[in-house]
C-alpha cells in the first residue's frame, strides 16, 4: 500500500480566488490521480497527473480551471482557479502502486467557497 | 465509456445480520473491480478487490463475487458491526486503462 498526505485538509475560500492542494506519497508510484467528490456524491476523475508533462484531463475538466503539476514520482499539486461556490467539494488525490491497478486515496481536502 | 450502477443507495441492517451491495457494469473489457469504504470526513479506503479471472474472493467477514457473463459484482458483509457503518463505493477499471469508474455509493447503517 501507500501512505498519502494532502494539504490543506480543509479550507474556506472567497469566490474568485485560487487554492493549491498538495499531495505527497511515501513511495514512488506509477500513477497519480485527482478526483472531485461533490457533497453527498460519488467520485469523479478530474485528471491523471503525469510526471514531467501536462496532465491528462477528463471530459468536462480543463487545464485553465484545474492546473496540475507533478514534478517527481511522489508529489503533485492541484490548483482550483477562480473559484465559485460550485467548486465546493472534497478533492482527493489517489495513487496507483507500480502497475498493480490498485488505487489508494489520500484523506481529501474539504473546500468551501463562499 | 464504462458505466457502473450501484444498489441500494441506502441499506439499514441489524447488528449481526449480513449486508449485500450490488453493482453492474457496462464495459465487457473491464477487468478489475475494487470496493472502497468511506467513513465520514475521511478518504475512501480499499477494503477488497477482485479481478476478472476470479469468481469470488473472501477476506474475513467481507467477500466479493463477480459474474462476468451478467456483468455484475457484489459485496457481502457478514456479522455486521456498528463500525461497518459507512458509505461503500464499487468501481470498475476498463481493460487497458487506469481510469476507475465509481458507482453512486451505498450508505450502510448497522443498528444496535
Q: Largest beta sheet of chain B, briefly?
A: 6 strands, mixed
Q: Per the principal axes of the C-alpha atoms, what is the gross shape of chain A?
A: globular
Major sheet description of chain A: 7 strands, mixed
User: How many beta-strand runs of chain B?
Assistant: 11
Uncertain runs of chain B:
none
Q: What fraction of residues of chain A sit in β-strands?
A: over 45%
What is the subunit arrangement here? Answer: heterodimer
Q: Termini distance of chain B?
A: 41 Å
Q: Compute the average pLDDT of chain B.
A: 94
Q: How many helices of chain A in DSSP terms?
A: 0
Number of helices of chain B: 0
By secondary-structure content and strand pairing, the structural class of chain B works out as mainly beta
Q: What gross morphology of chain B would you assign?
A: globular
Helix/strand-derived category of chain A reads mainly beta
Strand content of chain B: over 45%
Residues in helix, % of chain B: under 10%
Question: In percent, how helical is the residue content of chain A?
Answer: under 10%
Which key features would you list for this structure?
heterodimer, A: 114 residues, mainly beta, seven-stranded mixed beta sheet, four-stranded antiparallel beta sheet, B: 112 residues, six-stranded mixed beta sheet, five-stranded antiparallel beta sheet, globular
